[in-house]
Every structure is written in structure tokens, then in C-alpha cells.
Automatic annotation (TrEMBL):
The keyword Acyltransferase applies. This is Acyltransferase family protein. Coiled coil: none annotated. InterPro entries: Acyl_transf_3_dom, Nod_factor_acetyltransferase. The chain crosses the membrane at residues 87-108, 120-139, 151-169, 234-253, 273-298, 305-323, 343-364. Residues 56-360 form the Acyltransferase domain. Keywords: Acyltransferase, Membrane, Transferase, Transmembrane, Transmembrane helix. Residues 1-51 are annotated as: Disordered. One of its GO terms (molecular function) is acyltransferase activity.
Length: 399
């Protein structure tokens, strides 16, 4: 991404089925959240039908993942001087964005080209992408004293790559439902991308293609698959697996570049032989799937104090980028050498977790909803279903 349940046996009720066409993660209630309730009930619906509730498990997963994203960004400047920080960094980068992307695919299962869903895709993904691409550009011009930084919607800068990728993945959803072997095909595409240096930087296509398998897997996951990952055996096994992952990352840190985890370059661009792209893509895919299962095993199913923040993860994701980049532009990690000591690293981690938590809160959501969840009714024609709902509402108000 950088330039980032209780325990207990098998006899638990399965997770509730996914809401219809809820966009993805991380996000506001619109395009990346799984709550996709229309403003008015569809024609023919009974008036007293209760609204469906959000699933606490997925809100908890999104919040915990966005905290790991912010922590990862705070650890990046520390990795040159701390092998422990580098091990944590590499371990977290193996699964935090794949987890987001998999959940995004899971909540895209019902996506089609229906007008209301296309509208939510535009207002909840495409418009925030444009707004923050411009905002980040002006921020870099000011904070980094770089007035020549261009505005380019074809070359996403920093965190906006995820929105560009999500738009592309969502638009291809109907195609993945048509093909016979979607998951092997998506993995083959990711492998081919990793050995294709001529793809270029347009829309960060390397990331779009190399992260694609996680989105496609999410498309074909079912609630019982998440239930399997939350079994007691998986939870117990996840502890030694994470410990082994950290030890492996500690060993590998000085021996490999962390750029492999960003999936933004081909093997040749990283100075490696082409065949290493095949090996690393498949190896990292396997590691990501295992660590994601371990992560989901420990996500609480019940409602927690932070569950409500799961609806605001897109806010935390995009807004914390200004502080993450600003800390580098303004030289905080160079000016305050104590940040590279163990207590300083703990302090940086806590600050990152606190900041991104605050940025996911409802007051921040209300303040920035104009950019994250614009309604933009003026930009769209009203479809037949919407007209029918408005007529039914007007008719009921007269009676």
C-alpha cells in the first residue's frame, strides 16, 4: 500500500447471509460497507418490514484490519533501523490488504449492472477516488514543497490505488460469475502480471491484477466458510502459525525486499529473474490465505465497542494517509531519533491505532460524508423503480 466468536466448538449458528449487493471494504455505508439498504422500500414491499442489521463480525474485521493498515504505515519508517519492526511490517503486509479485498469480493457477490448498484459504485468508489486523488496531489505539493506534482487520474498516488482497483474488480464481477474456473484463472492472471514489466502504471494495473485472486475468492465464499475459519482448532493453530510467520519474516527481512508485498511491480522491475515472479506470487498467495484464516479466527463475532467503527473504515483509510505521508515529508522520524527505540516504536504504534480509530468515528463520518458518500441525485436520472417508490410514497401520504 505504500510508495499499505466466541470460542467454543462447532455447534454455532452460521453467520447471517450477506446483504444484497453491498459494495465492499473498507468503506462507508455506501460502497464498501455491507449495509446496502435503499432509502425507500422497493415496490411491493410491506411497509412494516424491519431493516436488516449489520453483521458485527464483518464490521469488527474491517476495523481491526484498518488498524493494522495504519500500524503498518507507522512501522515503515522504522524498518531500516529495527529488524523486529521489519518482521512485524512484513507479516502484517502479507494479509491485511488481502483480507480487505476478500471481504470486498464477498460483499460484491450480488453486484450486477442494475442502475442503482452502478450509481452506488460511482458515488461510493469512483467519486471518492477522484476527490482524494486531487486532495493528495495538492497536499504533496504543499507538504513536500513539490509544486510540480501532477494531478493524474490514471496514475493513482498512495492510497487511492485501492479505490481504482475496487472499481475495476466490481465492474468485472459479472464476468467472473460466467467463467468455469474463476479462481484458477484469476491466479494465473496474477502470475502473468508479476512477470509482465510492460503493464505500466496506468490505474496501478499491477496491483489490480496481482491482488485480483483475493477479490475473486471473496466472490465465491459463503457464510459457512467464515464459520469454518472461526472453529476452535483454527483459533488455537493460529497462534503458533503467527509465531512462525514472525520468525520467518525476521529471518527474511535482511534477505529480501518488502516491495514484493506491495504487488505494484513485476519481478523484472524489482531486479529479479522472471521466474521469481511466479514463485513469489504463488508463495505469497499461499501465505496470505493462511494468515487471513488466522486473522479471521480471532475476529469477535459479538458486538464490541469498536463495532460501530466498521462502517467508517474508508474514512480512516483515506484520511490517515495525510498524517502518514506528512510525517515523512516533515521529517518527524529523522528529527526525533527516540522514535526508533523500542519505547518509541510502541508509542508510534499506539498513536497510529488511536488516530485511525478517531478517523472512523461517526462525527468524522458526518464531516466528510460529502466526499465519501455524496448522494449526487442531480447527476442521475430516476429509474422506473425509484419513480414507483416515489409515487407509492406520495399516494400513502395522501391517504
Amino acid at each position: 500500500m505504500t510508495n499499505s466468536l466466541r470460542p467454543g466448538g462447532h455447534h454455532r449458528s452460521p453467520l447471517p447471509p450477506v446483504r444484497d449487493s453491498a459494495p465492499a471494504v473498507p468503506s462507508p455505508r455506501n460502497p464498501q460497507s455491507h449495509q446496502d439498504t435503499p432509502a425507500a422500500p422497493p415496490a411491493g414491499a410491506t411497509g412494516g418490514k424491519p431493516a436488516k442489521q449489520r453483521d458485527a463480525f464483518f464490521d469488527n474485521a474491517k476495523y481491526l484490519a484498518i488498524v493494522l493498515v495504519a500500524m503498518g504505515h507507522s512501522w515503515e519508517p522504522l524498518t531500516d533501523h529495527s529488524r523486529a519492526a521489519e518482521a512485524l511490517y512484513m507479516t502484517v503486509y502479507t494479509f491485511h490488504m488481502p483480507a480487505f479485498i476478500l471481504i470486498s469480493g464477498y460483499f460484491s457477490r450480488s453486484f450486477d449492472m442494475r442502475p442503482d448498484r452502478l450509481k452506488r459504485l460511482v458515488t461510493g468508489v469512483l467519486v471518492p477516488f477522484v476527490i482524494f486523488e486531487v486532495a493528495y496531489t495538492f497536499f504533496k505539493r504543499w507538504a513536500d514543497d513539490d509544486p510540480t506534482q501532477p494531478i493524474s487520474l490514471l496514475d493513482p498516488w498512495y492510497l487511492t490505488w485501492f479505490l481504482a482497483a475496487l472499481f475495476v474488480w466490481r465492474m468485472t464481477t459479472p464476468l467472473w460469475k460466467m467463467v468455469r474456473w474463476p479462481i484458477p484463472l484469476s491466479i494465473a492472471i496474477a502470475v502473468l502480471a508479476s512477470i509482465s514489466p510492460d503493464i505500466g502504471d496506468d490505474l496501478d494495473l499491477q496491483r489490480v491484477l496481482q491482488f485480483l485472486p483475493f477479490f475473486v475468492i471473496g466472490l465465491f465464499m459463503k457464510p459457512e466458510h467464515f464459520q469454518l475459519m472461526r472453529r476452535r482448532e483454527v483459533k488455537l493453530l493460529s497462534v503458533p502459525i503467527f509465531a512462525c510467520a514472525l520468525l520467518l519474516a525476521y529471518w527474511a527481512g535482511p534477505r529480501m525486499t518488502s516491495a514484493w508485498f506491495y504487488h505494484r511491480d513485476s519481478a523484472q522491475e524489482l531486479g529479479a529473474p522472471w521466474w521469481s515472479g511466479v514463485v513469489m506470487t504463488l508463495a505469497l498467495f499461499g501465505c496470505s490465505m493462511v494468515l487471513m484464516a488466522c486473522f479471521f479466527a480471532w475476529v469477535p463475532k459479538r458486538k464490541m465497542w469498536f463495532t460501530v467503527l466498521g462502517a467508517g473504515t474508508l474514512y480512516g483509510y483515506l484520511l490517515h494517509g495525510f498524517l502518514a505521508k506528512g510525517s515523512r515529508f516533515w521529517g518527524w522520524f529523522e528529527d526525533y531519533s527516540w522514535l526508533h527505540k523500542p519505547l518509541g516504536e510502541i508509542f508510534v504504534t499506539l498513536v497510529a491505532a488511536t488516530v485511525v480509530t478517531l478517523l472512523c468515528t461517526p462525527p468524522v463520518q458526518r464531516a466528510f460524508r460529502f466526499a465519501m458518500e455524496p448522494k449526487m441525485e442531480w447527476a442521475f436520472k430516476r429509474d422506473a423503480a425509484q419513480l414507483a417508490r416515489e409515487r407509492a410514497k406520495a399516494s400513502s401520504s395522501r391517504t
